[in-house]
Amino acid sequence: MYDTVNSKIHNNTVSSTRTNGGYGVYLANSSNSNDIYSNTISQFSNSVLIVSSSAKNKITNNTVSSAGSSGIVVNTGCNNNLISSNIISNSEKNGILIGKCSGTNIQRNNIVSSGADGIHVNSKANVSAITSNILNDSGKYAIYFEKDAIGNVYLNNYKNCSARYGYSKGEKKDYKFANLAVPAVKPIKKSGRTVTLSWKKVGGASVYYIYRATSKNGAYSYVGSTKKTSFKNGKLKKGKKYYYKVSAVKVGNGVKARSNLSSYRGKKI
């Protein structure tokens, strides 16, 4: 499809009659703001291919299988696309392949049995987030960043993967992130309208991110970061109770890998 804007492509079953032939869904020439959802796509070279400056598309809740190359591909120059809640299985190369583009959000996908990498990010791409995905049985890396690619990687679930993270420096050796432990947060201390959080050091962590909510099961928002193992949060409202969680973060070559969030700690002001 070319020059397609604000369209919905959904509830189709599409299968190639050729071995690894063509594309299941193809968007090109600035095809923007389209919804591709609830399709079943199998046996194409690339099941979903986004090219030619096509932006702000949503690829969600599709079942993609047996791609001859990669299951879902967002090509160079295609910015701010969402890839969410898809089941991607048995791709000969990569489950998801991201070209040199920015703002891609990859979340809540189930990626199974990729011949190479579960998620492969090409050189100089800038990925907003790779989060809450299940990556199972990747032939090489669960998530792989080429040279000069950057992005946020956190809260993913890895099963039977040869390696969790890889990063190419343009050399024979790959950069690998450590599997970060969850910070063990100590009881919160209070002084006036300021609280102090502290936790045990996490091996391999470069920095810690702190999140806050006003109910223990509420939405936790980022409030700051520190390279230390303590953090002060002030100017809080008297009589109100605040809840905090902490994540350990490893930073290297532009890639940020985060641990799972800690258990909450609360304090009434």
**Compute the gyration radius: what is it?**
21 Å
Per DSSP E runs of 2 or more residues, the count of β-strands stands at 30
N- to C-terminal distance = 57 Å
CATH class of the largest domain: Mainly Beta
Q: In what range is the share of β-strand residues? A: over 45%
Largest sheet: 12 strands, mixed
CATH architecture of the largest domain: 3 Solenoid
CATH topology group of the largest domain: Pectate Lyase C-like
Corresponding CATH superfamily of the largest domain:
Single-stranded right-handed beta-helix, Pectin lyase-like
Provide the residue-averaged pLDDT: 91
Q: What is the tally of helical segments?
A: 0
Shape: elongated
> What are the low-pLDDT stretches, counting only 5+ consecutive residues below 50?
none
Order of helices and strands: EEEEEEEEEEEEEEEEEEEEEEEEEEEEEE
SS-derived structural category: mainly beta
Protein name: Parallel beta-helix repeat (Two copies)
Domain Fibronectin type-III: 179-254
InterPro entries: Beta_helix (IPR039448), FN3_dom (IPR003961), FN3_sf (IPR036116), Ig-like_fold (IPR013783), PbH1 (IPR006626), Pectin_lyas_fold (IPR012334), Pectin_lyase_fold/virulence (IPR011050)
Task: Write a concise synopsis of the structure shown.
With 269 residues, the protein is mostly beta strands.
